[in-house]
Amino acid sequence: MEEKFNRLIFIPVAAVLFLMIGYQYVCPADSNACYFRTDDQGLFQRHSSGFEALYPEPDGDEDLPSKITSRFNFTERDLDRHVDFHIRGEDVMVFLHIQKTGGTTFGRHLVKNIQLEQPCDCMPGQRKCTCHRPGKAESWLFSRFSTGWSCGLHADWTELTSCVPVVMNKRDKKSAPKSKRNFYYITMLRDPVSRYLSEWKHVQRGATWKTALHMCDGRPPTQDELPACYSGEDWTGVPLADFMNCPSNLANNRQVRMLADLSLVGCYNMSSMSELERGRVLLASAKANLRNMAFYGLTEFQRKTQYLFERTFGLRFIRAFTQINSTRAASVGISEKVRWRIEGLNALDVELYEYAKELFLRRYQYNRQQQHQEERLRRRQERQHRQRMHRTYLAELWRLGGGGGGEEEDEEKEEKMAEEVATTEDYSSQVVRW
């Protein structure tokens, strides 16, 4: 009689335990999984708070809009960027540094701020750092702060793609045909108007970049192909109007020119095709090269740039990137008429930047969603593992304390208990109370 009474008591108690413990699994105390809300926000918005705590956006670094206005048709292949970067092997990261895009700051991050098994050796007072692979006297990074201007001052895509493999093989004393290298190109872009004004202020202070080679199809441009904008040693003190009036000023559409394959338009020979056709070809080439690069960042989105770089290469930075808005370009007050003039001179760069910005934000959104899926999968696997462990523990506990009845009866009881009760980490305390 007493045994039958105990069996009757066991069923409701087990049911209550099942509901309580199951709720703890589905809705743990530190989770928002069971947070009831009246709006219809999707997965991306519900799970973004944890990431923002790690990568808070400063005031100047815009938050990602929930819906990006689409002008361009990007495929999943365009959005999914992950590089299996073998720093111990033959892979090389190549930084294409466009003037006045924040490249100096980003270049310093590459040599001083990445968590590496063998960090770059940056000696005080020296401009270059030694960035060797672990256990090898070979460089994994091609940039101004690691290998110097080995392909010319601010070499562009046309120069780098023909020069870097030769230079790196020579530095590492490797035979080009036998060397299996992956060259991963990266760069930074900036809002065209801000970049243009920043370059003007830099030139106004005396910058010339005279030593730039501008190599294309094996030769530099002639004086007729690329006439100088000034007659003296430099262009110090140049007014903005004069800076804009020089037709051969390389500041105009600099980002498109430095990212495009100049061989497609006859290099610097302006007579090879019409100006309209030349612009169309250069813009299409720059978009394709940018889209196919391993990574690019935007100066206006420092934290998102950091996040996408880390996701792309599987590397981590030591310190968070900082958004700086008090630049020289930001301090320049210009009228709407002057802004329109600058945008007209940089029409190709404006189009490229709009394209790059949408692709950048879509990649960011895509990676955030991928990260949330990975975290959910990891939590699910951990939960399933804990459940298996606790079922095993429960079966063993039942075997030791459940009493006789024979092996077949014990197995039936174990299976029934395992099916009815979803255990948690604190199940032992529940058993004690029961």
Automatic annotation (TrEMBL):
GO terms for cellular component: membrane. Belongs to the sulfotransferase 6 family. Keywords: Glycoprotein, Membrane, Signal-anchor, Transferase, Transmembrane, Transmembrane helix. Coiled coil: none annotated. It holds the Pfam family Sulfotransfer_2. One of its GO terms (molecular function) is heparan sulfate 6-sulfotransferase activity. Residues 425-434 have a biased composition (Polar residues). Its EC number is 2.8.2.-. It comes from Amphiprion ocellaris. Its main location: membrane. This is Heparan-sulfate 6-O-sulfotransferase. The keyword Membrane applies.
